[in-house]
Amino acid sequence: MTTKRLVDQITKKLKTERGKDIKSASNKDLYYVITSVVNDVVNGDWMVTQDKYKKKKQVYYLSMEFLVGRLLESNLLNSGILERANEALLKLGFQPQQVYEQEHDAGLGNGGLGRLAACFLDSLASLKYPGHGCGIRYRYGLFEQRIIHGHQIELPDYWLKEEYPWETRKIDQAVEIHFGGNVHMHEKNDGTLEFKYENTDKVMAVPYDIPIIGYRNNIVNSLRLWSAESTEIDTDHLTSQTDHYYHQLDHKHSIEQISGFLYPDDSHFEGKTLRIKQQYFLVSASIQHIIKEYKKNNRRSLKYLPDKVVIQINDTHPSLAIPELMRILMDQERYGWDEAWKITTSVMAYTNHTTLSEALEKWPKGMIKDLLPRIYMIIDEINERFCKGIWFDYPELRDKIPALAIIADDQVHMARLAIVGSFSINGVARIHTEILKKKEMKDFYYLFPKRFNNKTNGITHRRWLLQVNPNLAKLVTDVIGPKWIQRPNDLIGLLRYTKDSSFLEKIGQVKNENKRILADFIHDRTGITIDENSIYDIQIKRLHEYKRQLLNVFHILHLYNELKDNPSLDITPRTFIFGAKAAPSYHLAKEVIKLINQVASIVNNDKDIRGKLKVVFLENYNVSLAEKLIPAADISEQISTASKEASGTGNMKMMMNGALTVGTLDGANIEIRDFVGNNNIFIFGLNADQVLDYYQNGGYIARDIYNTDDRVKRILDQLNEGAFGSQEIEYKDIYYNILYHNDPYFVLKDFDPYLEIHELVEQAYRDKNAWNAMSVTNIAHSGKFSSDRTIQEYASEIWKLKKY
Ligand code: 26V
Predict the structure, then answer these.
(1) Which residue stretches, if any, does this entry annotate as coiled coil (predicted)?
(2) What residues are annotated to the active site?
(3) Cα torsion through 754, 756, 759, 765, rounded to 10
């Protein structure tokens, strides 16, 4: 499509679809019209692709979260018309970015796990793999964060307020989900058992499909999001009671609540009935759909399901898929237990995303029994058989049965269910998988060594380099050609330019330009003026104790104290930038947000320090904000307590944009270090073995550091005495947590090494040429962290999928 044709189409659609001409059209009108152009372009390919997939093996990626962000610009990019769309918009007198920003950022996820799912969809389609996402169409996405007087305030994110132009409602493919009621068992004439469900609550799951466009390959996959609606009114139970009408409305309302909102707490597991309803709703709708499709497209019996279907469960959240598939195979399709179990365990694969014990899902068994009686019976049977198997076949593990059983202490342990019911169990970075095998899931690894495997996470380089950093992408293409776009590993070719000072200078210029743009944005948003020549030191991720935003704050406070003591101290100016949402009920995390904002207002307004430090907390961190920040980062803060961050993916996004990592030996930082080498990354602090050793054997006393390190004492006392608060002692919880709960995340222990490494950063930054060479080395190695590599590994090693 030429630019001229695009201009014509846009003008025509403005008239026919919006009733506007170009003079009266707004950015919003242009947004809808261009979306409609993209839909016209891809709809044909979408049908053809889905038709061609029919006979192929397909993967269904089941996830409670898909954090897709905005789609227009990436859809234009992938369908190969971004440049012309930009030209057309400019011709018509519109700023492309302003038009793209009209789209509501779809925040149907909390953080890493949900964004990973979105990157995977992009890679699946771009690599021509038959794959679909299955999720929930929450009416409210992750809350919008406002900072008021330094505090986090949560506002509902009603992202569907205006029409969402990427989705298509498919009412003809709605399925029914049953909750509650009773199960009756009958023996049939042939001696087999029949299960009948009575008095269940029925919910209709209505699918909305979103096209997932492959990169310039005419492939269009689907993301199917289910929405809960009430079924038709049950006329058998009509009564003449006056409140009947209100009961009906109440009932309808409570059903619609199932897809009402995304749970915003990704740190502490809480056994909420609505959440398990959401999980079963996703699982039952998706499995019913999968079986229907299989039957439609294949003549063979469901015995051969594993030849055509593989289901990846994204963390334990969709692990009820295992008993749900068993239920359908046995109760509806009349398979016996053994056959159904063989099919199920050949189809299901499970990815673990965290070892934090607080986040592990354990549902009260009574809750599952009441809400899903038949599913509970099946879980119970899976558990019985599993435990018996250990008793007879692994006598050496007999005394460990309580720690392995799926149902124990009146709770259903979802990770155990997922492990027992899947043929593959993977972690998301090398160290994470090793910790699963050697510690967290040691006995399961002993039982099922072949099931365990690693799939180090990745990110889509199309969105996270090509789209968000076009100037860098162009510079890269100028020297190594465009092949890296299809084959991100080719970025390694940049290594040849790490000594080319004219190229390095250009790399520096691109970064400076990105930093200038971000400075303007920050000024617009916050009124804060930042020094464009300062080091942009960025930490963007959910707020969690283990991610240690507090360690970063302590570094800032230390620099501030030093500058107060000696205002003429010669340091390279720094801008510390934070973006972080705290779970609404996570008190300590909210305290840290308050502290960052308080420190920002003190530091930014203190004339004594002559603008050498600035602290910026940007509210409402989400995918779109990440896209603005990442291209401008000099330093990427990846400073979790070693062993706690399963992988991290922000680390990969920032390295791909030339930022240097300050990080612990945790998650994928380790693999980044292995590729770029110790000279191109700033590693500090305890390693995972040391941390785990302290947890196991003790020996760490935070108070000793407080007593011996004056810098630490000064900062903690300032917190405790209210130096950064108002009259009342605001940060006593932080103070107490460190001194009285013995600093569970080793902030004080890693404080000194952290300061030291930042001094090295500062020295390194003085030599621009050397810095840019390090930056290029990072970009060069970032191809290994493309989600194309990850998906390739899932496809060949777990899913056994062929490219279309
Ligand atoms: C946990 C929970 C707990 C119960 C209720 C709701 C809820 C929702 C989300 C989560 C997510 C925890 C797991 C998670 O996000 N893990 C992150 O996964 C990333 C992708 O693999 C990885 O890069 C991060 O290191 C890991 O923290």
Answers:
(1) none
(2) 353, 541-542, 547, 649, 653
(3) -70
pLDDT tens digits for 516-530?
A: 999 999 999 999 999
Q: How far is the CA of 117 from the centre of ligand 1 (A)?
A: 11
CA atoms within 13 A on the CB side of 599: 31
What CATH architecture is 470-685+754-785? 3-Layer(aba) Sandwich (3.40)
Cα torsion for 663, 669, 670, 671, to the nearest 10°? Answer: -150
Checking if the pLDDT of 728 tops 60, the result is no
pLDDT tens, position by position, 358-399:
999 999 999 999 999 999 999 999 999 999 999 999 999 999
Q: How far apart are CA 379 and CA 341, in angstroms?
A: 12
Confidence (pLDDT) at 402: 97
Residue nearest to atom 9 of ligand 1 (CA): 266
Q: What is the residue with the minimal CA distance to atom 10 of ligand 1?
A: 266
Name the residue of 67, 120, 136, 266 whose CB sits within 8 Å of the most ligand 1 atoms, as the mutation to test its pocket.
Answer: 266
CATH of 56-71+106-457, one of 3.40.109.10, 3.30.2320.80, 3.40.50.2000, 3.30.43.10: 3.40.50.2000
584 C-alpha to ligand 1 centroid (Å):
16
Phi, psi values for residue 141, rounded to 5°: -85, -165
Question: 33 pLDDT band (50/70/90 cuts)?
Answer: very high
What pTM did the predictor assign?
Answer: 0.98
The residues lining ligand 1, judged by C-beta closer than 6 Å to any ligand atom, are 110-113, 116, 263, 265-266, 269, 315, 353-354, 359, 428, 457, 645-649, 667
Task: Please tell me the residue having the least CA distance from ligand 1 atom 16.
Answer: 353
